[in-house]
Records
---
Amino acid sequence: MKLARASGTLGLAVLAWIASPFALADDSGWYGGFNIGQSRAKIDDVRITSSLLGGGFATTSIVDDDRDTGYKLFGGYKVNKNFALEGGYFDLGRFGFTATTVPAGTLNGNIKLKGLNLDAVGILPINAKFSAFGRVGMNYAEANDSFSGTGAVRVTNTNPSKTELNYKLGLGIQYDFTEAFGMRAEAERYRINDAVGNKGDVDLFSLGLIYRFPAKRP
């Protein structure tokens, strides 16, 4: 996690440097918050079946565990009423599968996903309380895989891992209870590649709270 901490420090430094020229812009300011919700992965059953077939196994069934609890911690700088820069840490949870084979055996696979992100956020105020927003950015994810076999299935590389930079997208709405506190509902897509060559998307549907730090007065 030394690499993750270094990347997080660098991301916050970049965020501060980009935002600094806009420090006097109208409606600007720093904020932070927390979201939690359900994450959903797209497990590639076709690739799993093909991989087992290459090892001499026919697949009779695959049971996927493609949902978990995910969360994120975030901080950002609102440049003006229509634009913000946001960075944070995310943990999308754990996903897995169990494939049953002939000759008799099973292949079990799991993956844990977490990382850092930096996004540009476009904001559309609807009224004094409601706003909609969209985001596009990059995620630096750590994918930790684990595999095990039973019966005739033998696994040689049981714990591969990978870190990689990729894109992320999202949409959401925000309701402000006060000038300082608000609530968000979001849908986000993280593009993440794992250590064995799978390329896929993980979606996070979440609710969260946001706190806007008071502006410093001269």
---
Amino acid sequence: MPSPYKRILLKLSGEALMGTQNYGIDLAVIDTIASEIKEIHGHGIQIAIVIGGGNIFRGLSSAAKGMERASADYMGMLATALNALALQNILENKDVPTRVQSAIEMRELAEPYIRRRAVRHLEKGRVVIFAAGTGNPFFTTDTAAALRSMEIGAQVIMKATKVDGVYSADPVKDPSAVKYDRLSYLDVLQKNLRVMDATAISLCMDNNMPIIVFNLNVPGNIRRIVSGEPLGTMVSGR
């Protein structure tokens, strides 16, 4: 499979792992995601993954209810580690070599995040899953995805969502919402579009890191994007 990308960073939200459940991990959904990752891994694409934890714990919403923000964010980071270990287990059951690196030290479960080691794993054909965000409160896993993508030299961030791109409004609530095929970083910031948080978008803009927002629920979409098919919404410097 010819591809314009050699190394990608896939951003998975915790909510993407819930399936139709209201909470937790749907192993059938993770199995489907893992099968798609295995397919592109088999074509020699180097894959890093940043995973969220919103299916288990949301730091920001808990802070809004009175919990100290820093403590809530640390709890959210631990939730990302649970998701990372679940995805690692299913990938390895499919014979895909995988390493989890955590920004918070938990040696019995995951390697500490070391940039050079992560790059070496990718070069050796291992999928690397980054857990615990940036390791700092007040930063989202979107910001972690932007940061890690630059540190490892990824060529693109593929942000998996439940819709087929970026819209002018919520397409579920507003039938007149318009889908964008391409956006600039400034478009996203000025129009306050919910692609990623402003910190992540600014970081991508400063380093010219393209972002592709796509629908994870359509089978084969990861392969289609990696093969160069124009899907979803591309955010770049234009």
---
Amino acid sequence: METLSYHRILLKLGGEALGGVGGTGIDPIRANHIAQRVREVREMGVDVAIVIGGGNLWRGRVGLELGMDRATADYMGMLATVMNALALMDACESIGVITRVQSAILMQSVAEPYIRRRAIRHLEKGRVVIFGGGTGNPYFSTDTAAALRAMEIDADVLIKATKVDGVYDSDPKLNPEAKKFDCLTYLDTLNRRLQVMDSTAVSLCMENKLPILVLNLWDEHALRRALVGEKVGTLVTA
């Protein structure tokens, strides 16, 4: 049996991970692909919690550019994350992965309220927990929600799932000479403005010594390799 480097993870997904053409809407096929990855991890014996964004359904900055109130735009984004959480829950349950959605915004008909101890109990019972609704407060991103929830559930690592295989000093799609980082410190990440996650989330992880691992979710072997300690993606630590 493989020796695990991480026993409990918080997986941070952008809403675009569920998006169809152009990264918008909800594509059931992409949801199923993510669910398959989650099932593989659960079968390894790893506790899995997930925070997903809402950018495939709503971009708050678009509303702001058109004069919308910031708090209103943020609340709309939180509702979008709950829709994504429900879609991902359905995909997971359809392949036998028992899943619970907890929302920071009360909506008893569709999701459990976020309760830290209940979330931990679900994980201990082998269930996947998807956290929707961000932090429940405007002005905070889902990156910050992911860092907060990861620490609340005692996760060993926060895994930022992207479409690239790590963090680069510039956009590798635009610059073929872009340099990939295998390791970074929190301060390097902040000082270089590398946009691994937003600065609030990185600072929160730094203060609480929670490592951040950035990897390509669409590489079917990357997540499994990372969990058994192989060098994958970019690791951000102290």
---
Amino acid sequence: MPSERADRQRAKYKRILLKLSGEALMGENKYGISPKTLSSIAQDVKDVVDLGVEVALTIGGGNIFRGVSGATEGMDRSSADYMGMLATVINSMALQDALEKMGVQTRVQSAIEMHQVAEPYIRRRAIRHLEKGRVIILAAGTGNPFFTTDTAGALRAVEIGADAIMKATKVDGIYSADPARDRSAVRLPTVTYIEVLSRRLEVMDTTAISLCMENKLPIVVFDLTRPGNIRRIVCGEPVGSVVTFSA
């Protein structure tokens, strides 16, 4: 108990937005949702909620449907993107179920209205849920085609007043090049928004990076596959890489 109180007092971030890719839910599978991976992510989120940190999440839909690939195969881009948004709702409902099985109060809010399965996204209601200690899962992107889930995550993080946006990946931060292809690539503990844009480091798309830069919102890129990393970041440990104004 004393340790938990100490963690709460020294939490670096009081309100965060966690950005997950749809692929993060696949685990070792080639598509779909891995129950084991889903449970592991839910446990990591619960550990942070137990510290008193307010948590919002956005999830991609790439494990089910990827709009851009549909467009390249001849499908209308707008239709493909709307299908991708619906895929994010499926993922959001799956994560909600996993969290609630662990006793974490959760609400799914969708940018596309579908009252039978989710609340409509209303900024003030989302903030109220956070203040009451509920996790909110923000589904269906921005509700508009041609915008990525990176941009949706950055937009929602700014709207709810998050202290940081945390992008979960399969690597332990931002590298000077793709570490899977370039052995000389080095990890960058801190990097500026301008460097990310000018060096095309592919942290997020340019719209998302610009939105974070304009609103001075830090971006933390970290390895989701290592359990406990979200809690470590929240408690101030130097995990992953941080994008800020000054490196």
